[in-house]
Specification:
Blueprint: E1 3-7, H1 8-16, E2 19-23, E3 26-29, E4 31-36, H2 46-51, E5 59-61, H3 65-78, E6 84-89, H4 93-97, H5 99-107, E7 112-118, E8 152-155, H6 162-173, E9 181-187, H7 188-191, E10 194-198, E11 205-208, H8 216-227, E12 232-236, H9 238-242, H10 246-256, E13 260-262, E14 277-280, H11 287-295, E15 298-302, H12 308-311, E16 323-327, H13 331-334, E17 340-342, H14 346-354, H15 369-385, H16 395-406, E18 412-415, H17 419-427, E19 436-438, H18 447-458, E20 464-469, H19 470-475, H20 479-486, E21 491-496, H21 501-509, H22 538-544, E22 548-552, H23 555-567, E23 572-577, H24 602-615
Parallel strand pairs: 2-11, 4-5, 4-6, 6-7, 7-9, 8-9, 12-13, 12-15, 13-14, 15-16, 16-17, 18-19, 18-20, 20-21, 21-23, 22-23
Antiparallel strand pairs: 1-10, 2-3
C-alpha cells in the first residue's frame, strides 16, 4: 500500500480538501475553508498545516471563537447544508467559547466541523497552560463539554485514529437527518506527530446525499388522513427549505385549498403573497395562522421540529378532534405530538401528495375563510408598517420601511434573537426565495453579526443586512471587524431600545416589576439597577472597527442612511433609535413559562393562576 508521511494536522487538511457531496445529480466541494483563532493549543499543529503553501483551504481569522462557529453555521445554512466550514481553536477558553456555537448548529440541524485543541495526549507537560484538571477522571478535558451539543464527538489520541474519526465525521455531517456540530478534539502533541498515511485516504471522496423516497403505503396513509379532514393546515419548517420543496408545497396548498403557516426556518420558501401563506405560526406567529391552527382538524408538519414556539407550548391546537402527521427525514422529529410519522424527503412527499389518486377532487372545507384571514392580516401588517410614535421610530415601522421601500428584494436579511425575530416572522414579506435567514431553534443572542459575515462569504454578490437589537449586538459583534478585514461588506441595522426589552416584556407579563433588563445605572439610594438610562452610540463603535457608522431616529434619516449604506463598499452600521415597547404583540398565542407559584407580589400569584388555566388546555404529548 502506497503511503505518505504527514503530521496528523497536515493529513486532516489534505483529507478535508478532497471531500465532495452529490445531490440531485450535482457534485460540489464540501469543505470550503477554516475559521479560527490561533493559540498555543493549535498554532504549531493545525496552524502550521494551514500556513503551509501546500494547503489550499482558505483560513479566516475570527475575533471570537463563538463568532467563528456562528459564521460557519450561517455559511452552511446559506448553502442548504451542502457546503461547510471547519473551525479551529486553542484549548481551554478558546475551545469552550465554541460550545455555544456548537449548540446553535446542532439545535438547527446545520453541519459545522469543530476542531478544538486539546491537552497533551502524552500527559508529560501536565497540567499544561489552560488545562482544567479533573482529579477523578483524567480522560476528561474541557472538550468533553462538547459532548451534549455535538452530533458526533471524538478525540484523536494517536495520529492513525484520524482516519476512522474523519469518516465518521463525514458520515454525520452529510446525513441530513443526523447533521449538526461534529467535534474532533485534537491533542496538541498529536497534531504534530507524523504517520505513514495510506494515499487512498486522501483520494477524492464523494458523499451521496440521497433523498429518502416515501413508500406507497406511507403516501396512502397520508392521503387518507387528508381525505378525512375538513380543515387541514400545513406547518412549513426548515425541511421544506433544505429539500428545496417550496414549489411542491405551493402546489399541494393550491390544489387542495390548504393554508400553511411558516416556522422561522421555513419562512420564505413560498413567497409572502401566495394566497395560502398565512405567515408565521405560533408564539411569534400571525393572527391568521394562529386563528386557523386553533380550528384545524389535521396538522401536517413538514420538516418542522414542532418546537414550543411553533406549537404555543402545545396549546395552539384547540380542536379536540385534531390529528397530526409529520413529514420529516429525522425520526425523532417525525414522532412528536403523537404524529403519524412519514419519515421521508419533504419535496418528494409533497410532490407525490399533490398527485395522489385518492385525493382526486378533494378540496378542504375552509371556503373563503383563508382569504378573509389573510386579508385581515395584510391590513394589520400595513398598519404596523405605517405606525407612528411621538418621538422615535417603532420597531415594526423600521421593519416596514426596510422591507417595503429601502432594501433590494434580493438582499439576505439575518437575525436571531430577542423581539426582532418575533416581529420579522410575523410581518416580514419575503419577495425572493431564500432571503430570510433566521436562527431561532437556539435563539442565540450574538449569532447575528457573525452570521451576516458567513452569509456574505457564501454570497459575495448579494447585499447582506443584519437586523439586530442592541442587547444582542453588545453580546457579540466582533466579527464586524473580520468583515472589514476580509472586505466582505455587510450592513448592520441596530435597533436600539436601551435594554433587553424582549425579556422585560416577558417579565412584566407575569406580574413581575421591571428589573434588570433595561440599560440603567445603579441608583445610589436604592442600590438597585433603576437609575438613569444609559445612552450608547453604536455608530461610533462601528467606526472604531473601521466600518461606516450612520444614525437614524426618523423615517427620513433611516431612508438616507440605508441609501448611503447600499452605496458603500465597506461594512456599514446604522444606529437606529427605536421606542421601547414598540414591537408587535402575541396574536392569539400563548407560551408556557415557569411563573412563581408563591410570591409577595399579588400580580405574580394572579399570573400563576392564569397559567394553570392555560396549561389545562394543552396537549399532553
Amino acid at each position: 500500500m502506497k503511503t505518505v508521511r504527514l503530521t496528523m494536522a497536515q493529513a486532516l487538511l489534505r483529507f478535508l480538501d478532497n471531500q465532495y457531496v452529490w445531490f440531485d445529480g450535482e457534485e460540489s466541494k464540501f469543505v470550503e475553508g477554516v475559521f479560527g483563532i490561533f493559540g498555543h493549543g493549535c498554532v504549531v499543529g493545525i496552524g502550521e498545516a494551514l500556513a503551509d503553501s501546500a494547503n489550499t483551504l482558505p483560513f479566516y481569522q475570527a475575533k471570537n471563537e463563538q463568532g467563528a462557529v456562528h459564521a460557519a453555521t450561517a455559511f452552511a445554512k446559506e448553502h442548504n447544508r451542502r457546503k461547510i466550514m471547519a473551525v479551529t481553536s486553542s484549548i481551554g477558553p478558546g475551545a469552550l467559547n465554541m460550545v455555544v456555537g456548537a449548540g446553535t448548529a446542532t439545535a438547527n440541524h446545520i453541519p459545522v466541523l469543530l476542531l478544538p485543541g486539546d491537552v497533551f495526549a502524552c500527559r508529560q507537560p501536565d497540567p499544561v497552560l489552560q488545562q482544567i484538571e479533573i482529579p477523578h477522571d483524567y480522560t476528561n478535558t474541557a472538550n468533553d463539554a462538547f459532548r451534549p451539543v455535538s452530533r458526533y464527538w471524538d478525540r484523536i489520541n494517536r495520529p492513525e485514529q484520524l482516519m476512522s474519526a474523519m469518516l465518521n465525521a463525514m458520515r454525520t455531517l452529510t446525513d441530513m437527518a443526523e447533521t449538526g456540530a461534529v467535534t474532533i478534539a485534537l491533542p496538541q502533541d498529536v497534531q504534530g506527530e507524523a504517520y505513514d498515511y495510506p494515499v487512498e485516504f486522501f483520494e477524492k471522496r464523494v458523499h451521496y446525499i440521497e433523498r429518502r423516497i416515501p413508500s406507497d403505503t406511507q403516501l396512502d396513509r397520508l392521503a387518507e388522513l387528508v381525505r378525512g379532514a375538513k380543515k387541514p393546515m400545513i406547518i412549513a419548517g426548515g425541511g421544506v427549505r433544505y429539500s428545496e420543496g417550496g414549489a411542491e408545497l405551493a402546489a399541494v396548498c393550491e390544489r387542495y385549498a390548504i393554508p400553511f403557516g411558516e416556522t422561522q426556518a421555513g419562512k420564505g420558501t413560498v413567497l409572502w403573497d401566495n394566497p395560502y401563506n398565512m405567515s408565521g405560526i405560533g408564539v411569534t406567529g400571525s393572527q391568521a395562522s394562529n386563528r386557523l391552527a386553533q380550528e384545524a382538524d389535521l396538522i401536517i408538519g413538514v420538516g418542522t421540529r414542532f418546537g414550543d414556539f411553533t406549537t404555543c407550548s402545545k396549546w395552539l391546537f384547540q380542536n379536540p378532534e385534531c390529528k397530526f402527521v409529520s413529514i420529516n427525514v429525522a425520526g425523532a422529529d417525525a414522532y412528536k405530538l403523537n404524529s403519524l410519522p412519514i419519515i421521508a424527503d419533504a419535496k418528494l412527499t409533497l410532490a407525490a401528495l399533490a398527485e395522489h389518486p385518492a385525493l382526486a377532487g378533494y378540496t378542504s372545507s375552509w371556503g373563503t375563510r383563508v382569504a378573509e384571514e389573510k386579508r385581515l392580516w395584510n391590513e394589520e401588517v400595513d398598519r404596523l408598517y405605517r405606525e407612528e410614535y411621538p418621538s422615535l421610530l417603532s420597531q415594526a415601522r423600521v421593519l416596514g420601511e426596510l422591507n417595503d421601500h429601502l432594501l433590494p428584494h434580493s438582499a439576505i436579511v439575518v437575525s436571531g434573537s430577542g423581539s426582532i425575530p418575533s416581529d420579522m416572522q410575523r410581518v416580514w414579506r419575503t419577495r425572493v426565495e431564500g432571503t430570510y435567514h433566521m436562527e431561532y431553534a437556539f435563539s442565540c443572542m450574538g449569532y447575528e453579526v457573525a452570521a451576516g459575515l458567513g452569509a456574505k462569504i457564501a454570497h459575495p454578490d448579494r447585499e447582506v443586512v443584519v437586523i439586530i437589537g442592541d442587547g444582542a449586538y453588545t453580546m457579540l459583534h466582533t466579527e464586524l471587524l473580520t468583515s472589514v478585514q476580509e472586505g466582505k461588506k455587510i450592513i448592520v441595522v441596530v435597533l436600539d431600545n436601551a435594554g433587553f426589552h424582549c425579556i422585560d416584556n416577558l417579565q412584566a407579563s407575569q406580574g413581575i416589576v421591571h428589573y434588570g433588563n433595561e440599560w440603567r445605572k445603579r441608583d445610589e439610594q436604592s442600590g438597585r439597577l433603576e437609575g438613569s438610562s444609559l445612552s450608547v452610540d453604536y455608530a461610533r463603535n462601528a467606526e472604531s472597527w473601521g466600518a461606516v457608522g450612520l444614525r437614524a431616529t426618523n423615517p427620513e434619516e433611516l431612508a438616507a442612511a440605508v441609501r448611503r449604506a447600499l452605496s458603500e463598499k465597506r461594512s456599514t452600521l446604522i444606529d437606529c433609535k427605536v421606542a421601547p415597547k414598540s414591537m408587535t404583540n402575541g396574536y392569539e398565542s400563548w407560551w408556557r413559562v415557569g411563573t412563581a407559584e408563591v410570591s409577595n407580589n399579588p400580580a405574580v400569584v394572579e399570573a400563576w393562576g392564569e397559567l394553570q388555566d392555560d396549561i389545562a388546555k394543552t396537549r399532553k404529548f
